[in-house]
Amino acid sequence: MEVLEKYRDHNLIAKLLAYVLFFDAGASILKMFINMIRWGSDLFSIFTIIYQTVPVLAGLILLLNKHHDKIFKLSFAGSLVVTRLIMLIRIIASGNPPVTSVLSNFVQFILTVAIAAYYLGVIRPAGRKNHLIVVYGIMGIAAIFWIFPIGSISVGIFGLCAVMVLYGYQETRGQGNQAMFVYGGMIGTAYYMVYIVISGLLGLFYVYLPGFFGYTNFVLVMAMPLLVYDRIVPNEGQSLMLDFGALTGASAPVQYAQPMQQNNFDPMTGQPINVQPQQNNFDPMTGQPINVQPQQNNFDPMTGQPINVQPQQNKFDPMTGKPIDPNGGQ
């Protein structure tokens, strides 16, 4: 695993994900224009463009490191919910749609609202363990609809959202088996990128990968949230709670206001926390001397020991002026 360690750079992976999302959105729009050229302008659909706002906004957040920017977060969550709502309305308004199609689109809309609330902080993040429970609960429901012939639900978008929820937090290295989970997430993400690019290119010419690749992609998309498993999560150990003040920018409840401390340093800022007063001219955070005074009378003010002792002269101690010879300097 040492070989993969140098690639364990979340900023690099964020950029790669962003480029793949841009390609995915561009390929979908390009395919629509190819169809228009081949079979007529009647195939133009404004909804195709609207639906691509979700991957484009996700890509911008990952590329520009806007994980904590309120406008970007609201835009992404809003587009996620609105596009799923539009899909649901279009299915219902199409006239006598299959019950399974209505059901799957309705479930996808509910799951999208849930993941958007979690992403915005309405459901307070309360530790990596709870995060994975929430994410895999949502993705598990989507998987049931995706695997069985109930309806089509995008599992990949929920896997992407799961990564984005925790992406903005500082990384800490996972120990032992946790590192294996992270590398599994990296490999899953790499496969996801390759799959999207190849399937997007082939789809332009109406050539599709065998179903095996789709199921493999599904399995590895489930590994993507593990990519951020070893990141610090504020309020580790706190219980889940609803906080609708997150939508207005109100301050978090007291028990959720501070991230966990490590070694007296704030993991989010790297600044010392609860610094103690100086003791004996030593910094309690580093153990280094502070405000060292200049030497006085050839004595170190920090230790009281003599400095730069000169050789004896005429049997008298040059530091004290006292005789050294047992006979009193005679």
TrEMBL record:
TM region(s), chain numbering = 12-37, 43-64, 71-93, 105-123, 130-147, 153-169, 181-206, 212-229
- What keywords are annotated for this sequence in UniProt? Membrane, Transmembrane, Transmembrane helix
Ranges annotated as biased composition (Polar residues): 261-315
Residues covered by region (Disordered): 261-330
Is Transmembrane set as a keyword in this record? yes
User: The organism sits in which domain of life?
Assistant: Bacteria
* Keyword tRNA processing attributed: no
**Protein's UniProt name:** Putative membrane protein
* The species this protein was found in: Ruminococcus albus 8
- Tell me the classification of the organism that encodes this protein: Bacteria, Bacillati, Bacillota, Clostridia, Eubacteriales
